[in-house]
Fold this sequence. Notes:
232 residues; disordered C terminus; 75% helix; mainly alpha; disordered N terminus; globular
Amino acid sequence: xxxxxxxxGALHYLLLLLTVVAxxxxxxxxxxxxxxxxxxxxxxxxxLGFAAAGVTEISLTSTLVALVxxxxxxxxxxxxxxxxxxxxxxSVATAVKVLFVAAALGIVxxxxxxxxxxxxxxxxxxxxxxxGLQNASARKIGIPDLTTTVFTMTLTALASESTLAGGTxxxxxxxxxxxxxxxxxxxxxxxxxLHAGIAVALxxxxxxxxxxxxxxxxxFLAPASAGGSARS
Length: 232
């Protein structure tokens, strides 16, 4: 296992960038792939209940595909965390995510007209797998309030630990930035889908992931280089 990690500050900002990615990806899935989430699994569990109850606007199959693929991606994230830590884990996981999102984009670009059910569910599976991997990687890195995908507890903590509730507002800046990053991602992804199409939105996601991966790679190398300079 690697024992070199990036400076804490670098990881904070990289996770914020991945939070923007998550918001954009969920905008793509919800607006273009049949009202299903590939990031927000709490929402999918609710949708699963709705679909089972007979709500026809929600696809039971697509929701199940998203849930299973997300868990599979999370499992891979757990396996990667056995070998890598910190920015190195982020770098490797992001490289894998780029491949899966690129595969989803390839299906979109090669599909004539709207996606049929099989292609749609394949794109859902690829994106949900990538986001499961991202969620597991962020969880293993373990920076409080920067999960990149889940914000119910962040919102709860922001309110329940505020001065209004008798608390001391711990980490309020990072909590607020994380929530803002998700909103920015959802807004940007939504704009792309509504005005330029799903392919442009997925292209933007790939660019953001590539930038994150490169930055994570150099953040991982930085401590090693500093250590080497100190020894010389």
